[in-house]
Amino acid sequence: MDDPFNAYITQWSFSGAGTGPLAGRTVAVKDNISTAGCATSCGSRILAGYVPPYDAHAVALVKAAGAAINGKTNMDEFGMGTTTENSAYGPTLNPRDVSRVPGGSSGGSAAAVAGGLADLALGTDTGGSVRCPAAFCGIVGLKPTYGRVSRYGLIAYANSLETIGPMGRTVRDVSDLLRVIARPDSRDTTMQGRPYEHDPVADPKGKRIGVPAEFFGAGVDPRVAETVRKAVETLAACGAEVVSVSMPSMRYALAAYYVTCTSEASSNLARYDGVRYGPGGETAKSWHDAFTAVRSGNFGDEVRRRILLGTFALSAGYYGKYYGKAQTARANVGADFARLFADVDVLAGPTMPVVAPRLGELADPLAMYLADILTVPANLAGVPAISVPCGTVDDLPVGLQLTGRPFEDETVIDIAAAYEEAVA
Amino acid sequence: MSDVVIGLEIHCQLDTKTKLFCPCSTDYRDDGPNTHVCPVCLGLPGTMPAVNRAAIEYALKVAKAFHCAIPEECEFSRKNYFYPDLPKGYQITQYDRPLALGGYIEIESEEGGEKRVRLTRIHVEEDPGRLVHKGGGDRARYSLVDYNRSGVPLIEIVTEPDMTSPKEARRLLAQLRATLEYLGVYDSEKEGSLRVDANVSIRGHERAEVKNISSYKGVEKALTFEITRQRSLIRRGAVIERETRHFVEARGTTTSSRSKVEEHDYRYFPEPDLPPLRVAGWVDAIELPELPAARRDRFVAQYGLSANHARTLTGDLRLAAFYEEIAGNDPALAATWVADTLLGELNYRERSIGTVDPARFRALLALVKAGTITDRSGVEVLRAVLDGDEEPNTVVERLGLAATTGDDAIATAIAEAIAEFPQAVADYRAGKANAINYLAGQVMKKTRGRADPRELGRLLAEALTE
Fold first, then answer.
1. Which class for B370: exposed (0-12), middle (13-18), buried (19 or more C-beta within 10 A)?
2. B47, A275: Cβ pair inside 8 Å?
3. Are strands A163-168 and A346-350 parallel, antiparallel or unpaired?
4. Do residue B45 and residue A50 have CB atoms under 8 angstroms apart?
C-alpha cells in the first residue's frame, strides 16, 4: 500500500473473515495497541523489534468482527505529543495539507482515515490524542468514557487518563466501531461492564447544550471560536436548547493533567530496560550502567522530559506539592462536570484552540502543552467526548467537541450525528 | 536482656494456586526457569493486573486470626525502583491504605508467661523474579533472570518493636508460622517462602536493620550476632549509626550494606490499573479454623497433657495432626514419646514429621505399652524405624530386643553383677540405698537394656537380701 502521509509504522495484512459487523471494512490500529505477531513500537526506538505475543482486547474484538487490519499507525512516542512529530519513525503529514501536522498523538490513525487508506481506525486518547488529530484532519473521533473499552493491551502512558477510542469518517462509523470494542474484559478491572449497544439517533430535540465561556477563552483562535459557535447555533436550530455556563476548574486542568500524566508515565516507562524486549544494551560493568545506556540511548527527548518531570513530581518531599495537589485539582474538575451535567446533557466547544499548525510550528514544548487545554478536562474526569468536523478556517478543518455524562457516550454520539445530518 | 529492642518485618508467600495478578501457577519449584510465566507476570507492555481474590481472602484470614483492624477498603500502590528481577520497574504493593492495621501475636515471653507482640500492619504485595548468578556470588560473570516467582502473592507483616531477645523473635516466627499453616494459607516447607528483616537496637541507641534472613534459625543467629556487635561498640564508647546490614547466613554475621545506589526514594503512588478494593463484605464470611492456642487448650483438656507438651505438640500443624492420629488410648504415653523422643530424633536427622509413618509409630507405642520392649529398647527400635524401612516388630526380632523380664538372662546378669561388685553389695547392705542403682546399671549393660527397670529393681532387692 502506498503511504504518502507516513501514516503507518508497520503495514500488515490481517484479512478479516467474510462475516461479522465489520466485514469488508479496513481498520488501522495505533502502534501502542498490542497486536499478536505484528510489531508494536509505540513510535519509539526502545521497542524496536518488539512483537507482542498477544492481542489487545480491542484488537481481538475487531478481528472477531470480521474487519481487515492493514497496519500499525504512526504516533508521538508513547503518545507524548500533539503533532505526531515526536516519532522515532518520522512525522506523519496531514492529508488535508501536507505542510501541516495531522495532530497527535494518534496522527497516523487520523491520517489513514482522512487519506482514504483505512475505513476506520483505533486511536488512544490520554489528553486529547483521538480528538485532536480527528479535528485537524477533518474526521470524527471519540474518547469513550473511562472504563467502557478495555485497556488490556494498550501500552500504558498514563493509565488513569487514557482510553482506546474509535475514529472514522462519520459518526455512524465511529458508533459501529465502538459497538465492537466496548465489550467487557475481566483483565481490565477498571472497567464498569457497560457495553455499548446503541445506534445513533440524529435528533437533538429537548437536549440541553451547555457552552462554557472558558472553552472560548484566551488562546482560542477567534475564527475557530466563531466556526464552533455557528455549529452550536445549528444544533439550536434543530431543537436543542443552548445555555451559557461556566467551568472555573478549567484554570487548573492543564497543570493537573501534566502532573498526573508525567507521574504515571515515569513509572509506566520504567520497564523499558532492555532485559526482556527491545534493543539490549552493550554488556556493562553493572546492570545499573546497562539500564542507563539503553534508556538514554533509545528514548526521545519529549519522553525523557516527561519521565524527568514525573519522577520529580512523585519524589519524597514533592509528592504533596505536585501529585497530591494535581489529584485535588482533578477531583475539582470532576465535581465541576458533575455540577454542570446536573443541568445540561452535553457541553459544546472547540476541540482544539487552533487549526492544524505547520510542521515544526509547535516545537516549543510549552506551546504544545497549551494546545491541549480544551481536551484534557474530559480525561481528568473520565467523561466521554467526541470531535466532529464543523467547518473550516483557511480551508483547514475545525472540530466541534461535545462532552457528556459518564457512560452516556450514546448522547454525545446522538448529538454529533444530529449536527452531521443537519449540515450534510 | 531487657534493654534489647527488636521489631520484625516478615514476608511470607501465600500458598495460593495462582499468582496475585495473573492466572499463572505458583507451583514452580520443580520446573525449569521461566516456565510459569505469562505476559502479565513478565510485565510485557500493555498488560494489566487483575487481583486474585483467593490471595486477598488468605490475607484477610491472617488479619482476622491476629485480631487486626480491617478497613472496609484497601488500595494497591506502586513502589518504584529499578532491578533486573523486577519486570515492570515497580512492585505492586500496598502503602498508605494496607489491608490490615494493628492486631497482635501471642507468644511465650522470655520469663515464661504469655506476651502480646503488637502488629503495625499487614499488607499484600507481589514477589519479584529471581536472579541466578552464573559462576556464583561475587565472581559471577553474568546473571540470568527467572520470572517463575514473579507475581507470587506475599503478605508483609510488620510488628511493633515489642520483642526483647532473639529467643522471643524466634518464638514469634514459630507462632506466626504455626498460625499461618493452621489457616491453610502458607507452606513453610517450600523453599524461600519466608523472608525476614529485623530492626534491632540497644535501648537509648540507634537501630540497625538486618536484611536477608530467610530461616527461623537465621533470625536468632542474626540477632544474637547483631546485639553482641552493638554492645561491644557501646562498651568501647562508639556511636551506633542507623544503617542497613546484611545477614551472611553461612558465617552467621551481619555486614554493613550502605551504598549510595541503595538509597531509594520509592516514589509510591496509587496503582492506577487497580481500583480500591472493598473487602468489607468478605470479612464476615471468613471462618477461622481451630488455631494453635485453642488446640493447645483442647489438648490439655481432652488428653490430659501438661501445658508444655500441649504447647510443643500444637506448635506445628503437621505435628499436632500426627499426634492426634497416634494418641490412641494412652495419650499421655504418646505425648511423651512424640514430644520428648521423636522430635529429638527428627531434629538430629534434620527431618520433618511428615516423613514419619504414623502406623509404624503407633505399633512402636503398642509394643512399649504392652511391655514387650522397654523404653530404652523403644528408642533403639524408633531409630531403626526412622533410618531403615522396617516394621517395629521386625526390628525387635532382628535385634533380639524383646524385654527379658524374669527370664534366665536377667537372673544370670544379676548374679554376675553381685559377684563382680562386692563393694556396691556391701554398701547396700550397710544401708546406702542408692548403691542398688549402680548395680542396676551394670545389669542393664549386661542385658543391653532389655530389663524392665521397675522389675529389675525388685529382682535386685530380692537377690541382695537373700
1. exposed
2. no
3. unpaired
4. yes
In eight-state DSSP terms, residue B353 is G
- Which of B210, B217, B272, B206 has its CA nearest to residue B241? B206
User: Hey, where are the domains in chain B?
Assistant: 4-285, 408-464
DSSP secondary structure, A369-407, as one string = HHTTTTTHHHHHHT--EEEEEEEEETTEEEEEEEEE-TT
The model's pLDDT over A269-299, given as tens digits with 9 standing for 90+, comes to: 999 999 999 888 777 778 888 899 999 999 9
Would you please indicate which residues of A are annotated as catalytic (active-site) residues?
30, 105, 129
Please name the CATH architecture into which domain B408-464 falls: Orthogonal Bundle (1.10)
Across the interface, which of B87, B267, B272 has its CB nearest the CB of A271?
Answer: B87
Give the whole-angstrom CA distance, residue A38 versus residue A40: 6
Euclidean distance between the first and final Cα of chain A, in Å?
31
For A226-236, b/e burial (b = at least 16 CB within 10 A) is bbbbebbebbe
- Are B46 and A56 a contacting pair at CB < 8 A? yes
How many domains is chain A partitioned into structurally?
Answer: 1
DSSP label of B329:
T
Single-letter amino acid code for the residue at B194: L
Closest by CA to A188, choosing from A145, A159, A225, A230, is: A159
DSSP letter at A364?
A: S
Top mean pLDDT of A149-153, A284-288, B354-358, B362-366 is at: A149-153
Amino acid found at A270: A
Across the interface, do A319 and B269 touch by the CB < 8 Å criterion?
Answer: yes
Q: What is the DSSP letter of A102?
A: -
Output the domain CATH number for residue A321.
Answer: 3.90.1300.10
CA atoms of A4 and B205, how far apart (whole Å): 72
| Residue A55 to residue A83: CA distance in whole angstroms | 27
B32 exposed, middle or buried (CB, 10 Å; 0-12, 13-18, 19+)?
A: exposed
Cβ contacts (< 8 Å) between B145 and chain A: which residues? 275
Tens of pLDDT, residue by residue over B300-336, are 999 999 999 999 999 999 999 999 999 988 999 999 9
pTM: 0.91
pLDDT one-digit tens code per residue, A6-40: 999 999 999 988 799 999 999 999 999 999 999 99
Domain limits at A220? 1-424
Measured between beta carbons, the chain B residues lying within 8 angstroms of A33 are 46
Confirm or reject contact between B131 and chain A (CB < 8 A): no
Torsion of CA B280, B283, B284, B290, to 10 degrees: -170
Closest CA to B211 of B256, B244, B163: B244
For A:303-332, CB contacts with B below 8 A are: 311, 314-316, 319, 323
